[in-house]
Amino acid sequence: MKSGVLLVRCALVAGVLLACSVSAHASVIFYTTQGTFNAAVTSPTLVEDFESIATKDVPLASLTHNGITYTPLGGTTNVFVSSPGYTNYGAGVTQPTTTSILTASGNEDFSAAFTSSTFAVGFDVYLNGLGAATVNVFNGATLLDTFTFASGNDKRYLGIVSTVAITSFRWTATLGGELNTGIDNISTATVSSVPEPSAMLLLGSGLIALIARRKLNRAS
């Protein structure tokens, strides 16, 4: 009877350990300043600032540059790289923008897909003050997590660190057709490796076996 109860308890512990290992393996951390993001990663590298793109200020069906493909989604029909000097960004209403920015001609809703997946990515965002903007983080078709910027009329930063490879992210804004939103200065980085779920499960199984053996020895 005691051994049966012990087996049930061990099974419950194994289930908890497995759930914890999967959760830890799929965790995403968001950073809202470049300083905190850079401190959390290794060798952050600027991979795209949109300055060297030749085709600017025209709508594009899609854009591939420096290993990233930008594709319009939802009701958005194009992507658009704006030159410096625009005054129709929410964050640049009072003065012209000073950098090239990825946006769209209408409401902004587009994805950025990486040719080589990454575990850490950070970028500047331009908000328009007309509503929330969201960033969805993906591994393939699987949504890893979502970050929401509350309505604001300024330039901000978002850093993303994941224990699962990031293959793309999606930028979706509110009323971008009235005042632009956009992204700029995309960096990627490396992060410290984390145990795979199988390794964590093996560790948990070893602990369970050790506990079970001790209890059986005491019972005998």
Rounded Rg: 23 Å
CATH class designation? Mainly Beta
Count helical runs: 3
Shape: globular
Nearest-integer average pLDDT:
84
Class from secondary-structure proportions: alpha+beta
Overall number of strands: 11
Q: Give me the strand/helix succession.
A: HEHEEEEEEEEEEH
Low-confidence segments, given as residue ranges, are: 1-25, 194-212
- Any idea of the CATH topology? Jelly Rolls
* Share of helical residues: 10-25%
| Count of structural domains | 1
End-to-end Cα distance: 13 Å
Features:
Jelly Rolls; two-stranded antiparallel sheet; nine-stranded antiparallel β-sheet; globular; 220 residues; disordered N terminus; alpha+beta; 39% strand; 25% helix
Q: Would you write up a description of this structure?
A:
The chain is α+β, with helices and mostly antiparallel strands. The protein has a single domain (27-194), classed as Jelly Rolls (Sandwich), CATH 2.60.120. The chain is built from three helices and eleven strands. Strands 1, 2, 3, 4, 7, 8, 9, 10 and 11 form a nine-stranded antiparallel sheet that branches. Strands 5-6 form a two-stranded antiparallel sheet. A hairpin with a 2-residue loop joins strand 3 (63-65) and strand 4. It is globular and about 40 Å long.
What's the layout of helices and strands?
Layout: H1 2-25, E1 28-31, H2 34-40, E2 42-48, E3 63-65, E4 68-72, E5 80-82, E6 101-103, E7 109-126, E8 133-139, E9 142-149, E10 155-172, E11 182-190, H3 197-219
Antiparallel strand pairs: 1-10, 2-11, 3-4, 4-7, 5-6, 7-10, 7-11, 8-9, 8-10
Helix pairs in contact: 1-3
